[in-house]
Structure formats: structure tokens, C-alpha cells
């Protein structure tokens, strides 16, 4: 991921931001953060994934009705922080289903995690996480929501490996050139992770109430700690309302 290029696109996109000296994107134990005026503000790039936004739209507009369960799979590089990956996937579960996790049970080792999370709406989410891919390999992920009326997912039913929006084949090259849905305007040439990062930073800069980002990260880190506590006790952990 080219962080310098992402920062450059942000400077060139937002009017009045180009003069700022202290703006950067950093990672703290896996967490992406916007460094602005000496503060590190947590950001949530995955919420700007067009596939997730499409799923969210289907839920919000009633295309799928009465969610029953959700399945989540995410496989990242070996160097990825498992605790962060847990927080990421649990955030996606809460955001898409519109609920708060009330109970959690987890089985975790060094590189993999399996989690069952129950929402206060009684929606059951199963999460599978692994950090086993080679460096610079694009993550493999799949998210599915099952409702009484309809199913929505972020990939086609028969796909196994991540798909690009456009492939350009050249007879002289072994691998085709690939392009994302965002290959236009300020996002041209950025991969999907970089595009989500830029979108997230722009949204954060536009939001005046940045305290919500810190509160959200704190909540997600608590959920990850509950998952680890479940592993230690080998029991389901109930999350009290005042702790959420």
C-alpha cells in the first residue's frame, strides 16, 4: 500500500488541505489512523467498501427483511494483527446488521480465530479469521447475510478468489492488468485498499464530531478483549449494556 500516494491524493482533493504540514496515515497495531494536528484519529476504511455499502443499502431499503444470521470470512497476510482483524470483522457485523453484540464465544490460536457473536436483536454472526497469506497478497473475504426474506452477499456464489472489476489482457504479459470500480478522477490507479483509505480519511475530515471515532474504536477493542477472555475461560461471555 502506497501511503504517500494516498496522502498526496487527499491533499489534492480537499480544498484548503494542501497547505497542511501535519497530515499522515499511520497504522497502530493494525489500526489505520489519521494523523492530524498532532492527534491520531481512528478511521474505518472497510465501511467505504462499495460491496459492503451495497449490502447495507439492500438491508436499509428493505430488499432483505428480518435478518436471521450472518457469516463472515477474512484471510489476511501472516503479519496481520489478529486482535485488529477481530475488531474489524465484529464492526462489520454490527454495522451491517444494525445491532450490538450481547454475547460472544471464541476459539483463537496464533494465526486463526473462530467466533460466534449474538446480537441484542438475536441475530447470530459466525466469524472466521486467518492470517496465513503471503506478504502483499490481496486479502480473501466473504460476507453473507441470511434473512427471512432474501440473502445478500459481497461476492458471487461461485467465486473463491477475489475478483477485479476489469481485466486487460496483453499477449506479451503473463498477468493481466486489473482495474477497480474507482479508476476515475482522484482515485485513478489506486488499489481497493488505498481507495477505501482515501474515502475514509475524506469522510473523517468532513465530520466535525471526531469523538465518535475514538468511542467506536474503544468499543471494538473491548469486543476483541471479550473474545480473548472467552478463549481463556472456554466460556461464552455476556456483554453488559453499560460496557457497550
Structure description:
By secondary structure, this protein is of the alpha+beta class. It has one domain: Dihydrodipicolinate Reductase, domain 2 (2-Layer Sandwich), CATH 3.30.360. The chain contains five helices and twelve strands. Strands 9-8-4-7-6-5-12 form a seven-stranded mixed β-sheet. α1 crosses α4 (192-206) and α3 crosses α5 (211-233). The two termini are 33 Å apart. The mean pLDDT is 85.
What labels describe this entry?
244 residues; seven-stranded mixed β-sheet; alpha+beta; three-stranded antiparallel β-sheet; Dihydrodipicolinate Reductase, domain 2; 12 strands; globular
End-to-end separation in angstroms reads 33 Å
- The structure class reads alpha+beta
The CATH class name reads Alpha Beta
Uncertain segments are none
Query: What strand line-up does the widest sheet have?
Result: 9-8-4-7-6-5-12
CATH topology: Dihydrodipicolinate Reductase, domain 2
CATH architecture: 2-Layer Sandwich
Total DSSP E strands? 12
The average pLDDT value, as a whole number, equals 85
The Cα radius of gyration reads 19 Å
The number of distinct helices, counting runs of at least 4 residues, comes to 5
